[in-house]
Amino acid sequence: MKKYFAFGLILFSLVGFAQNKVKEIQNTIDKEVWKPFQKAFETLDGKALNATYAKEVLRATPNGIDTNNAFKAANLQRFEQNKKDGVAIKLDFWFDSRRTNKETSYEVGFYRIGFTDANAQTNYSYGQFHIVLKRINGVWKISQDWDTDTINGVKISSADFKKHLPLKF
Predict the structure, then answer these.
(1) Containing H/E element for 135?
(2) Which positions ≥6 away from 93 have C-beta within 8 Å?
(3) pTM of the predicted model, to two decimals?
(4) Alpha-carbon torsion 26, 157, 113, 48, what sign?
């Protein structure tokens, strides 16, 4: 009986250690990717946003699949247009699921983007994302990015987003 108890204690300790290591990696991802990603959106900094992505990215949206990084040029253009139009952006998000190892993280969550125009009118856009991050040359980068504004044909709404509190960095 003592052998089983000792084995169980060792196993429990190893699982706890592994979970702490995963949490440590996810904290690094938050610092290297998610905090700069959110800041880039909110400061309309397309170059900083694009810097959170790998050199080669698979990006899928309801509009199609981009394997040529066309979305990066679109980010620059969109943010410049937002600046010209006097639009401010507030990005909030939370994770529904994160699966992480030393080199790869698969992260699923929900986002809310608030667009406030020059007349102080705010419109919100909601969606779900699936992101694959890779550790490239010691730095975490987004390598695959998929998002949608519907689930099973139903538009994602504020009610979906309100299931959890947004992350604070």
Answers:
(1) strand 122-136
(2) 34, 38, 109, 110, 111, 112, 129, 166, 167
(3) 0.86
(4) positive
Structure tokens at 42: 């909110």
User: What type of residue sits at position 89?
Assistant: I
3-state SS, residue 32: helix
**How far does Cα 79 stand from its chain's mean position?**
18
User: What's phi and psi for 47, nearest 5 deg?
Assistant: -65, -45
Element (H, E) at 129: strand 122-136
- Per the listing, tokens 């620059």 go with 76
The whole-angstrom separation of Cα 63 and Cα 133 is: 22
Confidence at residue 80, expressed as pLDDT on a 0 to 100 scale: 98
| Structural contact between residues 87 and 118, judged by C-beta atoms closer than 8 angstroms | yes
pLDDT at 169: 84
Residue 143's Cβ-side half-sphere holds a number of Cα atoms within 13 Å equal to 11
Greatest Cα pair distance, the chain, in angstroms, is 72
Length of the chain, in residues: 169
HSE-up of residue 80 (Cα within 13 Å, Cβ side): 7
Collect the ranges in the chain with pLDDT lower than 70: 1-19
d(CA 97, CA 37): 18
